[in-house]
Amino acid sequence: MQRVEVDGVGTAYEVLGDGPPLLLLTGLGGVGRAWGAHRERFAERFTTIVPDHRGTGQSDAPSTGYTIGSHAADMAAVINTVGLGPAHIVGSSTGGAIGQTMAIDHPDTVRSLVAVSSWAGPDPFFEAQFIARRRVLTDSGPRAYAEASALFLFDPAFASRNQDQVQAWVEKASAGTPNVDVMAQRIDMIRAHDERARLTAISVPTLVLVGEADVCTPPHLSEELAAAIPGARLEVLPGGHFVYIEHPDAFFDAVVSFVDAQ
């Protein structure tokens, strides 16, 4: 993987394929390989840039400095270092939040934005969910946190039919020796994300995607996000928060159709 530093913090990223530049930003887990087969699939059509967020994967894990703004600066630096920008940004959940802030604070790096399973700012349900999940993390550890998180991240119907796949995700999400303090700071980071007062500054074409059974960031949050960004379009897909895992073809086709139209 390649690396770029912002204020002494290194962000690791890989570049796959050839074509128009497309940045894939994963969710709260932060590791780019969570996109699975989508990395290679997008690389068949795009120069696909896949970073690890600070604090995750092969990127540096500073003891402080976890904000959506710092992540947006990291990812803008990645695009500028690759030298192919502005790029199409496809961000899932936390990645969608980072994409919003990139489009506002680093507009020269963003060609279009696809915000998947994301939100503009927290509401009482969002707050309560992440307060509870953070407590599970700090009180019971990463394994219990992954098990609890799966209840919010997968469509309940999908989880019931695909228990082995959900269990495999739990095993992977809790593998190794996760830094609980960094994980907790990253939860605090997304609780603090609120761009509702600035979303009118986003001028790039924007698609907001959400699964109809998303428990983690329910569809009403995507409705609010799409309504606040000038010209944004909302599309509801089958599935839960992990719509790109549960319905990969519908997700991929929606993204490619939108990006190709730009």
Folded structure, characterized:
This protein is α/β, with parallel strands linked by helices and 262 residues long. The chain has one domain (2-121, 195-261): Alpha/Beta hydrolase fold, catalytic domain (Rossmann fold). The chain is 46% helix and 18% strand. It has eleven helices and eight strands. An eight-stranded mixed sheet has the order 1-2-4-3-5-6-7-8, sandwiched between helices. A hairpin with a 2-residue loop joins strand 1 and strand 2. Helix 4 (124-140) packs antiparallel against helix 8 (180-192). The chain is globular and about 45 Å long.
Index terms:
262 residues; alpha/beta; eight-stranded mixed sheet; 11 helices; Rossmann fold; globular
Ordered list of secondary-structure elements with their pairings:
Layout: E1 2-6, E2 9-16, E3 21-25, H1 38-43, E4 47-51, H2 68-82, E5 87-92, H3 94-105, E6 110-116, H4 124-140, H5 142-153, H6 156-161, H7 163-173, H8 180-192, E7 206-211, H9 219-228, E8 233-237, H10 243-246, H11 248-261
Question: What does the largest sheet look like?
Answer: 8 strands, mixed
Low-confidence stretches: none
> What fold name stands as the CATH topology?
Rossmann fold
Distance between the termini: 29 Å
Concise account of the structure shown:
The protein has 262 residues and is of the alpha/beta class.
